[in-house]
Inverse folding.
C-alpha cells in the first residue's frame, strides 16, 4: 500500500500528528524572527481589542486575521527551508519561489492590518 491509499483510523496516529504539528510550531518559534514580530503584534492587537471591548463579530474577524498571518508565515518558512534543501546553491528560480512565498505573507499581513484599521480606528476616534 502506498502512502496515498486509504489507511484505517488510528487514535495513536492522530495524536502523533498533533505532536508533529506542535513540533513544527515550536521550530518556527525558535528560528523565525518574523514570526516573533507577528506574535508581538498579535499580543498588542489582543490587548487593544480587550481595552476597546470588541464585539464578538469583531473578535471573530481579528482571530481569523491572526490565524491567516501566522499560517502564512509558517508556510513561508517551510517553503524557504525546503527550497534551501532542494537548491542549496544560488538559483534564480528558487529565489523567485522564496520571494513569492514572502509576498504571500506580505499580502496576508497588509490585508489584516487594513481590516484591523477598519475595526480599531472608529473605536479609537470615539475615545477622543
Amino acid at each position: 500500500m502506498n502512502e496515498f491509499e486509504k489507511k484505517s483510523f488510528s487514535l495513536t496516529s492522530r495524536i502523533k500528528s498533533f505532536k508533529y504539528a506542535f513540533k513544527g510550531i515550536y521550530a518556527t518559534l525558535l528560528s523565525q524572527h518574523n514570526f516573533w514580530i507577528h506574535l508581538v503584534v498579535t499580543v498588542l492587537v489582543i490587548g487593544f481589542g480587550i481595552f476597546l471591548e470588541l464585539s464578538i463579530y469583531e473578535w471573530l474577524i481579528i482571530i481569523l486575521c491572526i490565524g491567516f498571518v501566522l499560517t502564512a508565515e509558517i508556510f513561508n518558512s517551510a517553503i524557504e527551508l525546503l527550497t534551501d534543501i532542494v537548491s542549496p546553491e544560488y538559483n534564480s528560480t528558487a529565489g523567485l519561489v522564496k520571494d513569492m512565498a514572502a509576498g504571500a505573507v506580505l499580502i496576508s499581513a497588509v490585508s489584516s492590518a487594513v481590516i484591523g484599521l477598519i475595526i480599531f480606528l472608529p473605536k479609537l476616534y470615539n475615545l477622543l
Notes: The chain has a mean pLDDT of 94. The two ends are 66 Å apart (CA to CA). Residues 92-127 form the longest helix (36 residues). The chain is about 85% helix and 0% strand.
